Amino acid sequence: MDLKHHIRGIPDFPKPGILFYDISTLLAHAEAWQATVARLEEAIKPHRPDLLVGIESRGFLVAAPLALRLKCGFVMIRKKGKLPGATIPYTYDLEYGTDTLEIQADAIKPGRRVAVLDDLLATGGTLAAAVRLCRMVGAEVVAAACIIELRFLNGRSKLDVPLTSVVSYES
């Protein structure tokens, strides 16, 4: 199944000049969504993670069903101020400014094997920050995965873990 047929491009969203890759149409198509999760399972399973970490918010949609299939736990990384209890923050640079991600301080026991997931890899800043945050709390990050990779932005170069993308766009 060619999953690109189930992802729609929305021009000029969220601002002019940006082509947004919308996975809502993929999620709404049962066979395409099941094929996506199956391909991610095939890629992540050999890394034997204990936990899957999803990055807010569409990364939750990727990691949660995959965690069920792999019989792993699921942990959320969210934007600052969204998680209850004690959190560990990590601030990272964006093209124009900074952003902060957080994880609950007790979400990952040191030494646990984790895979980090998101819906899309563009420049790699957010995924690299999530990997760093997981390491800050003692996780062994064994892999990363996403549904869509925008290869022309070279985000993969910011990662030092194996990365799998189900669909890639070259331009």
Give an overview of the whole structure.
This protein has 171 residues and is an alpha/beta fold. It has a single domain (48-169), classed as Rossmann fold (3-Layer(aba) Sandwich). It has 4 helices and 9 strands; from the N terminus they run E-E-H-H-E-H-E-E-E-E-H-E-E. The chain has helices at 24-28, 30-44, 58-70, 125-136, and strands at residues 8-11, 19-22, 51-55, 73-79, 87-94, 97-104, 113-121, 140-150, 163-169. Strands 5-6-4-3-7-8-9 form a 7-stranded mixed beta sheet, sandwiched between helices. Strand 1 (8-11) and strand 2 form a beta hairpin. Helix 2 crosses helix 3 (58-70). The longest helix is centred in the N-terminal third of the chain and has 15 residues, at 30-44. The radius of gyration is 15 Å and the shape is globular. The protein starts with 7 loop residues before the first strand and ends with a strand. 35% of the residues are buried.
